[in-house]
Amino acid sequence: MPETGGLTGLDPEHAKIVTLARSARARTGAAEGAAVRDTDGRTYTGATVALPSLALTALQVAVAAAVGSGASGLEAAAVVSGSGAVDATSLAAVRDLGPTAPVLLADLHGTLSDVLQVGG
């Protein structure tokens, strides 16, 4: 686990997707940002979608972007959120593509708060 206040000690590839998730959130001003890394090392980002006719979490958007680009598996995912939690539906989306992929949960400053395992 990294030191409080940053990504110190976190695997560089994991730190990259936390940074990408934070950037996706900041760029859009959304409630959450997310990023996933597929089994080929490609990354995909997403931000919360909150429209009257469509509501998706940032993680669902990132997983959908990966699937839409042909990804067949996920190595890891990251969510940057002020809520301190990831909902079950978002975790299920990760599990569909990456049953052993960790989900890194970080606060709005990018400080890692938890690592969730979706497999079961």
How are the elements arranged and paired?
Elements: H1 12-28, E1 32-38, E2 43-47, E3 49-50, E4 55-56, H2 58-68, E5 74-81, H3 88-97, E6 102-106, E7 112-117
Parallel strand pairs: 5-6
Antiparallel strand pairs: 1-2, 1-5, 3-4, 6-7
Helix pairs in contact: 2-3
Strand order of the largest sheet: 2-1-5-6-7
Write down how many β-strands occur, each being a DSSP E stretch of 2 or more residues: 7
Biggest beta-sheet profile? 5 strands, mixed
Could you give the order of the helices and strands? HEEEEHEHEE
Low-confidence stretches: 1-5
- Gross morphology is globular
The helix/strand class is alpha+beta
Key terms for this structure?
120 residues; alpha+beta; 5-stranded mixed β-sheet; two-stranded antiparallel ribbon; 3 helices; 7 strands
Description:
- The protein is of the alpha+beta class and 120 residues long.
- The protein contains 3 helices and 7 strands, in the order H-E-E-E-E-H-E-H-E-E.
- A 5-stranded mixed β-sheet has the order 2-1-5-6-7. Strands 3-4 form a two-stranded antiparallel sheet.
- A hairpin with a 4-residue loop joins strand 3 and strand 4.
- The longest helix is centred in the N-terminal third of the chain and has 17 residues.
- The chain is globular and about 30 Å long.
- It starts with 11 loop residues before the first helix and ends with a strand.
- 47% of the residues are buried.
- The N terminus is likely disordered.
